[in-house]
Write a structure and sequence with these properties.
This protein is an alpha+beta fold. The chain is built from four helices and three strands; from the N terminus they run H-E-E-H-H-E-H. The protein has a single domain, classed as K homology (KH) domain (GMP Synthetase, Chain A, domain 3), CATH 3.30.300. Helix 1 crosses helix 3.
């Protein structure tokens, strides 16, 4: 269970990273990167950031690009939250494919429902 401080830092990092990604992806038409969850370790040294990327066909390429630019993103985050946090946590990015998983379940259930109706 996260402490109240961890939860506040999770929300702060999620909000600021979402804004950074929104600005970065404005030039890329048809691409949306959203920060679905942030989990900070109890020592506040590492933040695991889960990203939802649309369209999902480009997700692996974009995630690889984000991982190569992690130092720049951490610097940008530090510029925004430097007054609130003493130490900016290291960032680890992961792909949140829960929406694709739900879409797949809906698709499978939808095809089963169509077969039953026929």
């Amino acid at each position: 269970m996260d402490s109240t401080r961890q939860q506040k830092i999770n929300r702060l990092i999620q909000k600021e990273l979402s804004e950074i990604f929104r600005k970065e992806t404005q030039q890329m038409r048809g691409v949306l990167v959203s920060v679905s969850t942030v989990r900070v370790t109890p020592d506040l040294g590492l933040a695991k950031v889960y990203l939802s990327i649309f369209p999902s066909e480009q997700a692996k390429d974009l995630l690889a690009n984000i991982k190569t630019n992690v130092k720049t993103l951490r610097f940008d985050l530090g510029q925004k939250v430097g007054k609130q946090l003493r130490v900016i946590p290291e960032l680890a990015f992961y792909l949140d494919d829960s929406l694709d998983y739900l879409e797949n379940i809906d698709r499978l259930l939808g095809t089963d429902n169509n077969k039953k109706e026929e």
